[in-house]
Each structure stands twice: as structure tokens, then as C-alpha cells.
Amino acid sequence: MKFFKSFLASFLGTFIAMGLVVLFFFIGLAAIATSVSFENTNGTWIGENSVLNLDLNTSIVDRGPAFNPLESFSDMGPGLTGMDKILGSIHKAKHNDKIKGIKIHSGNIRSGWSQAHEIRKALKEFKNTGKFIYAYSDYMSQIGYYVSSVADSIFMNPVGMIELKGLASEVLYYEDFQNQYGIKMEVVRHGKYKSAVEPYLQEHMSEENRIQIQGLLDAAWGTIRDQVAESRGMAPANLDSLLNKLVVTNAEEAHAQGIIDGLVYEDEFENKIKATIEVDTSEELKVVNFNKMNVRIKEYDKKISDRIAIIYAQGPIFYTKGSEKIIGKDAINKAFQEVLDNKNIKGVVLRIDSPGGDALTSEIILNASRALKDKKPFVVSMGNVAASGGYYISCLADRIFADPMTITGSIGVLAAFPNIRGMTDKIGINAEQVATHDNAMGYSVFEPLGGGFEKSVKTAIEKIYHTFKSRVAEGRSLSMETVEDIAQGRVWSGKDALRIGLVDALGGLQEAIVAAADLAGVESYNLVDYPKYDDDLESILFNAFSEAKTKLFQHPLEKYTSEFIELSRMEGIQTRIPYSIKME
Predict the structure, then answer these.
(1) Cα(23)–Cα(124) distance, integer angstroms
(2) pLDDT in tens, 159-214
(3) Whole-prediction pTM
(4) Which of 268, 315, 429, 500 allows an S-S link to 325, with CB 3.0 to 4.6 Å?
(5) Domain that holds residue 130
């Protein structure tokens, strides 16, 4: 028996040791590869007559995830690409004489519309230099076609499919579900447009909610339609007509209607590129993959001491430490303080992609931004969403930039509390309370809201709503009456937000960086990213395996249930955007 125990212990020990050796070997190898790639950013490794391969069939975020060696050697990583790498590669290709053009694969791009717009704008600037852009896809989603439409020529697989149908948004309502199963959300809100909780209060969409969603869709589609029509030499009305009739669903129809330029297979597509750069078809096409260039929007120059800091705020706002996917008070405020203390940092850009969240945390972050603004130029760049709490933490900035398709505003407050009294009654559970005072129990998941607790929540919501409006009035130099007219929880597109004074200009991250530098009075500068997250071995392993589990076990109905689950997880009073607005 002792022999088998010893053997088993020895075997497990050897197995674990070998696993660690392999792990650290990959970590070291990946680190070496990364360092080599960074050393080669001067472009000397790029051959003559090269083409940038911009494969955007991935999930795109404002700031890419920290380097994870396990993900580098597997297909189980998050598959996320940062906007800085995409825009940086386009910028570098624009100024590199060896790179003659770009080939795009964007048919299955997974990004927000504002991100797609920013990428498309960078591609258009590249095209204006006289270099070519060719696009190819087997399947073309609507957002993928929008990005590709900037190309000189668009090609598709002869039997490929294309999605061109216009924009729509779907909202689920849970009132009957709650009544049937006895699980409901007790809701307190302010603002007639604060529809984040509307699906839990009624069975049908309110007219106010329908108006605001229709406004968002119309504003976004106006931008998409006009830009596509301009690039394709079509009248906007003709494009609308094609979509209304839904006559473009496959590659052949798209070609017949002038939506694309040719039907070829991918090897034939590459031959067209070779012909354009006058390379023989028998020769191998020199391709530079954008994700191997390791460049940012602006490359770091050690000779320059002045810096512009980009503080990324991505995800919902929670009263917590924070991470790459969650805006927490600790991480963001620490970043503000580090930027404030660094004498080399002359200006700051806060890049926001957030639907909002905890009201108290939003106020804490806003207060920290006030201290930063008093010392250094402070500019905000809004991504896909910067609404409710996301707008709250923005409103004191010296300048605010939004994309035309940014979802912003939503100046309103809500609170939601899960109640399972109906379910417990059905299954025979009864909760009894004993207390020393009338309102000592406060909130219970087994009882409807009532008495002093509900009154206190309403009082707190009114106070926070007033504070929210006063912060907006202060930051945007508007009267409280004007803010009330554009508040009440209503969401706005970036284009409309400019019209009503919630933002200063339409533009992306690049425009915000330039504005921060101009306000700081610096011409030459480096870019530095914040917050800084510590990635130890434990977090690397945890992130890799959690992403793998998500990919393996994600339920197809998750996108429909996530909103209900997300709201049930909220704690305290929220400054949060109406549900998850997806324009598809």
C-alpha cells in the first residue's frame, strides 16, 4: 500500500512539475516573441510591395486585454482586439511607403457601431493618400458591410450571403412572466424616459420609450446610409428602397444592385491585389498582419518626455476595485491620482464605454475627475455607450467628444429590488418578521416594498437626480431648467447630444487626444494607458480558464436572459442606461 501511495505521489508531483515547466516555457517564449515584435516596430522588417491584412473578424473593444501567454498559444482566449492596435496599424500603414494598400476582411466583425465608424473613418483617411483598399468576405454582416463599403472594390464569394436590412431593436417585457412565476422586480425610478426598468412594470412598450429608441435608430441609420451611399455612388433614397424591399440577401443580388463589385473566390481576390501592385500571380503576396505590428495610435518615442494619458473606463460601474471589464472606484481613482502626480503627463483623455451603474460610485469618480481637471486639461472621448453613470463621470470635462452613433445622456435614476413573495407562497414558504421599530426590517426579498423603506428610497432617488442634474448644469454651463428638458432618463445619439449641448464635438479617440494636447500646449508627446492592472500567474490562469468555460458552455438564450439577471444583481440606487440597447 505504501508503495502505491509513494508511486501516486511521485507521479502527481512529476506531472505537476512538467506542467509548470511547459507553462513557464510558453510564458518565456511568448515574452521573447513579444519583445522582438516591439523592437521591430520601425518597419524595417516590412518588404517592398506589401499589403496590410486587416482581418477584423473578431470582437473589438476600446482597450485590448492585457497580454496572456496561454491565450497566445491556444484558441480559447477571449479573441478581443483593442481599437488602439487597429487604428495604429492603419496609421502606420498610411505612412509606410512599402505598404501599398489594405485588404479587409470584416464580414463578421463584432463591435459597436461607433467603433465601426471610427475604424471606417481611419480607413477613409488611408484611402485619401492614394493607396488602395480592397475588401473580401464569404459572408457579410450589416456592420461588416458598413466598414467594407469604404473600400475601392468589394468582392464576395459567389455563393456568399449578405445582410442588408436596416436597424432594429428588440425589448423583452416580463410582467406576465413575473405574475406567473412569482418572481418580480420592485422598482422605484425618476424620469419618464427611465425605461431601464419598464419591462418589469408593464407588458408593452411605452410611447416615450418607443420615441427615444426610434430616435436612436433613425440617427444611427442616417449616418450609416449616407456614408455607404456616398462610397458606392448611390442616392441614399435608392439604398433605403433596396432595404425596404429586402432584395439584397446574397452575393449575386448584391453584385446586380451595385452593392459589391465582383464575385470571386479568395485566391482570385488575391490575384486582383497582385495585379494592382504589379506582382506576378506566381509570386507570394507579401502580407503584413495588423495584429503582429504591435503599434498603437501613436508609437512611443523615448526621446520625448511629455505625455498624454488615456484612462480607459470600460463596462458597468460598480462600487468595487474594478477591472478591464468593470469600472470600479479604486482602479479609476488610482489612475486619476497617478496621472495627477506625474509631472510628465500634460493632458488626460478619459475614454468611456459604459452604460452606467452605481450612483455613489459615479459621484466618487466624478469628484476625483474634478481634482484632476483643476490641474491638467481633461478631455472625454465617448465610445459605443457613455450614458447615465457613464455620462455622469464625463460631464465636468473641459471638452467632450462623441461619435455620431454613441448612445449617451440617460440622465435619470432608478432602484430595483427583487421580490420572490409570489414564488414562496406557491411552494409553501412563509417569512415572518419581528422588529423593535416599524421600519427596522428595511428591505426583504420575501416582502413587497412598503412603508418607510420605499419612502426613503424615493427621497434618495430625488436627491441623487437633483445632484446629477446640477453636475450636468455645472459642467455644461446649462440652466437646471434646460437640463431637466433633456434629462428624465432619455437617451440620445451622439449627433443629437451635440445639438442639445451634452457634448462639444463629434469625433473619436484621435480627435480627443489632439484636443487634450492642444489644451496642454504640447506638440510632441507620447501616449500612456491607464489604469495599470497587475497580472500575476493566478489571474492569468483564472482569466484563461474562465474564458474557455464561457465559450464551451454559453447557452444560446443567454442574450435574452442576461438583462433580467443583470438587473437582479444591482445593489443600491443606479444611474444606468435603459437595458441593453442593441441596434442590429
Answers:
(1) 43
(2) 999 999 999 988 888 888 888 888 888 877 765 655 667 787 888 888 888 888 89
(3) 0.83
(4) 315
(5) 43-164+248-292
